[in-house]
Amino acid sequence: MSEVFVRVAVRIRPLLPKEVLHNHQVCVRMVPGSAEVMLGSDRLFSFDHAFGPTASQDEVYESCVQPLVESLVDGYNATVFCYGQTGSGKTYTLGGGSLDEDGGIIDCVAQDVFSLLGEKEKHSDGVEATVRVSYMELYREELRDLLELHTVHKELHIREDEKGNTGDEKEKNHKNE
Ligand SMILES: Nc1ncnc2c1ncn2[C@@H]1O[C@H](COP(=O)(O)OP(=O)(O)OP(=O)(O)O)[C@@H](O)[C@H]1O
């Protein structure tokens, strides 16, 4: 991957059956053979990647995220951030379905992280890796631990340590043990 620190991709989802039923119209289209999209008839926007309504989960993952997972196991930090209005497809793109049925980014990352770490362990002496996962919802300034649903959101705080790593309070306590 070239030395670009932030890449932006756009994904246009297909109309949903209920939108077709209500005769909703498509207002944004891919410009064929480019990473540009046309809003209405004359407003052109350029991105690093653009995916149309027929793009598969794998296509999105392979172009935008897989290279980051490869850098991750080499020790680099990486963030994938989905942004868009409600109903635009963030959850679908990140987590939709399971690996067997059109898994999203989280499914594919989980699979690749472990297979790449397995490869690394096989080919280099003494490499050890620890994988920690946290899954948090931030909604209206309140945090919820999605892996421990009974946690009271008021007890959770995201903090930054002296190295600039962020984590929730419980994670920090764990690191200090
Ligand atoms: N690429 C896609 N192909 C097929 N269906 C899709 C696609 N993207 C989204 N959808 C469907 O569109 C609907 C809305 O998507 P989703 O729930 O992912 O939106 P969201 O951006 O996470 O919304 P919210 O911000 O409200 O949580 C869902 O029914 C989802 O299955």
UniProtKB/TrEMBL annotation:
Domain of life of the organism encoding this protein: Eukaryota
Gene Ontology biological-process entries: microtubule-based movement; mitotic spindle organization; spindle elongation
GO molecular function, one term: microtubule motor activity
Binding site for ATP: 84-91
Residue span(s) of domain Kinesin motor: 5-177
Region (Disordered) residue spans: 158-177
SMART domains per UniProt: KISc
Cellular localisation: Cytoplasm, Cytoskeleton
InterPro entries: Kinesin-like_fam, Kinesin_motor_dom, Kinesin_motor_dom_sf, P-loop_NTPase
GO cellular component terms attached to this protein's record: microtubule associated complex
UniProt KW keywords: ATP-binding, Cytoplasm, Cytoskeleton, Motor protein, Nucleotide-binding
Gene3D superfamilies: Kinesin motor domain
PANTHER family registered for this protein in UniProt: CHROMOSOME-ASSOCIATED KINESIN KIF4A-RELATED, KINESIN MOTOR DOMAIN-CONTAINING PROTEIN
Family indicated by similarity: Belongs to the TRAFAC class myosin-kinesin ATPase superfamily. Kinesin family.
Name of the protein: Kinesin motor domain-containing protein
Organism of derivation: Lates calcarifer
